[in-house]
Design goal:
single chain
Length: 117
Amino acid sequence: MRHAQTLLMPLDDGYRAASGNLILDSYDLAGFGSRFEELLAARMGSTVEVEWGLSKNLKPQFHACRTCNGHERVEIEGVGLQNMRDDYDSIDFTKHGTTTCPTCRGLGVEIRNFWQR
């Protein structure tokens, strides 16, 4: 499985998703997420895990995701990655690991029919 980061941004008359050298434009967002992910998988030739990012000027136009409350990430079991200051530093086991929100896939908002096929 391959991993891709994708940015969703507004245009004057629509929206654009960009990931590496792949760009897709649309006038509306209905089914846009699914179309882009299918196109990305076809281009990469394998299963792709897509982490979405939303431009800051689009975020206020939508309701926050109910799962992550707009934070784009959720806590998981285990300890989060920590950098040690030196060899004698200790691990803080109270810091939980996080992963991309499975509901909004990193957008932090709920976009109606975005994942519709």
